[in-house]
Write a structure and sequence with these properties.
heterodimer, A: about 150 residues, alpha/beta, 5-stranded parallel sheet, 5 strands, about 15% strand, globular, B: about 110 residues, Hypothetical Protein Ychn, Chain: A, 3-stranded parallel sheet, 3 strands, about 10% strand
Chain lengths: ~150, ~110
């Protein structure tokens, strides 16, 4: 049991630099409603997830509304600067997250409404779910960010 | 929190999400706050069928969900409290703030 400062004296962890302290894994949930080409929300969602994964946390996305378009494969935006928001297509960024352990679930109703065929349009690892999956995310995530 | 004006898909789809989360296995307690331009959808005169709200609202209320509207956002748009639908409760700024602060999570639409 860690010591209580001023009572039992400082515990051994008090002498470790903050960065060296083990931190419990947290679960970050992201509700993404923004599409791939309407704003920077998808990129913010990616960057948050990237940072959380790099810090050892679990990350789950629920892509709702136009967010269901974000992971669709084979999207192209010609003549983009390598320094721009679209240095890589949104789907490539999300495939990277999936490969590194992120869970990406797209709302099935939104998928159908947009004529997306998950079998052919989504890369491996992108799942299709329903609102109970969002409920599950809310029940299990330590923090939820809505973008 | 619903923030977009009626006519955007976010009002009805935010209500759909609220309904879905409230009805889920975990049975979350869900409160919907109409704020910013979404307060137009909280009026009694809003066409709930046209906005695809009616079934979502009915199911949400049946699951114990609540509908609130931001009184300051109403006032900013010259919407009188008596124009608000009977199943929506007007709250002031501190109450809205307390709602957000007390929630485990908030979702924005």
């Amino acid at each position: 049991m860690p010591g209580r400062a001023g009572v039992d004296g400082p515990g051994p962890e008090s002498f470790l630099p903050r960065a060296a302290l083990p931190r419990p894994m947290s679960r970050l949930g992201v509700l993404l409603t923004g599409g791939p080409f309407d704003s920077q929300r998808w990129r913010t969602a990616y960057e948050l997830g990237r940072a959380a994964l790099d810090a050892g946390h679990e990350v789950s996305y629920f892509n709702y509304l136009d967010g269901a378009m974000v992971p669709v494969a084979d999207q192209h935006l010609p003549d983009c600067s390598d320094a721009s928001l679209y240095d890589e297509m949104p789907t490539e960024k999300f495939q990277e997250l999936v490969a590194d352990g992120a869970e990406v679930i797209c709302c099935g109703l939104c998928v159908d409404a947009r004529g997306i065929d998950p079998e052919t349009d989504y890369p491996d690892g992108v799942e299709v779910g329903l609102l109970p999956d969002l409920a599950d995310l809310l029940g299990t995530a330590d923090r939820v960010v809505s973008l | 929190m619903l923030t977009r004006a009626p006519g955007r898909v976010h009002v009805s789809e935010g209500l759909r999400a609220a309904r879905g989360v409230a009805a889920g296995f975990d049975h979350h307690d869900v409160t919907v706050l109409f704020t910013e331009d979404a307060v137009w959808a909280a009026r009694a005169a809003a066409d709930r069928d046209g906005l695809n709200m009616r079934d979502h609202v009915a199911d949400l209320l049946a699951e114990g969900g609540r509908l609130l509207v931001d009184g300051a956002a109403l006032a900013a748009r010259d919407i009188a409290p008596d124009e608000v639908a009977a199943d929506v409760t007007v709250v002031d700024g501190p109450a809205a703030t307390a709602l957000v602060r007390g929630a485990d999570h908030t979702l924005d639409f």
